[in-house]
């Protein structure tokens, strides 16, 4: 009899619709992982988003705020807000574009490269610890699935 109740519970429609909400599940996991990476990178004075910005600039060179925001799947205004503390600390520069005065060019500074390099072992350690706990194959599959979400171009508000 107890097995019947368990089976019914596992197959029943959730009484709380948020239990099946893709957005809530994604945001909960994202907040958890973001806080974990923030804590790991805190000793070098970076948050996870700031580290990602420095990594992208280090790998791809200077670019417009809009291009950087697109690369990280962030809106331009939020990216500009995230760049302000990095610029205040001298880790990036944000200057008007010579070609288009309306555009702003972001570049990583030598101090930004040093800070990113100081954070890299902490980030690698967190990556390793997460993959040991969650599974390396599962982590790779998770990243691929999340990238696929971005590639679908799902924009119901534009239809």
Average pLDDT rating = 90
**Poorly predicted spans:** none
Oligomeric assembly: single chain
CATH class: Mainly Alpha
Instruction: Give the total of beta strands.
Output: 3
**CATH level 4 superfamily:** Winged helix-like DNA-binding domain superfamily/Winged helix DNA-binding domain
Helix content: 55-70%
The CATH architecture term is Orthogonal Bundle
Which of globular, elongated, flat, extended, rod-shaped describes the shape?
globular
H/E series, N to C? HHHEHHEEHH
**Secondary-structure-derived class:** mainly alpha
For the largest beta-sheet, the strand count, sense and barrel status come to: 3 strands, antiparallel
Number of domains: 1
How many helices? 7
**Rg computed from alpha carbons, rounded to a whole number of angstroms:** 20 Å
- The share of residues in extended strands comes to 5-15%
What is the CA-CA span between the terminal residues?
Answer: 50 Å
Which topology does CATH recognise? Arc Repressor Mutant, subunit A
């Amino acid at each position: 009899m107890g097995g019947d109740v368990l089976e019914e519970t596992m197959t029943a429609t959730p009484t709380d619709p948020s239990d099946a909400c893709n957005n809530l599940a994604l945001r909960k996991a994202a907040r958890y992982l973001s806080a974990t990476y923030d804590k790991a990178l805190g000793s070098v004075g970076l948050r996870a988003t700031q580290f990602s910005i420095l990594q992208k600039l280090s790998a791809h060179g200077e670019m417009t705020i809009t291009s950087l925001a697109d690369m990280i799947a962030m809106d331009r205004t939020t990216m500009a807000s995230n760049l302000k503390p990095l610029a205040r600390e001298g880790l990036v520069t944000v200057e008007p574009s010579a070609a288009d005065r309306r555009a702003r060019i972001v570049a990583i500074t030598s101090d930004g490269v040093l800070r990113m390099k100081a954070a890299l072992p902490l980030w690698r350690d967190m990556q390793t610890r997460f993959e040991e706990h969650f599974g390396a194959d599962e982590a790779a599959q998770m990243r691929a699935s999340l990238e696929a979400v971005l590639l679908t171009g799902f924009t119901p508000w534009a239809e």
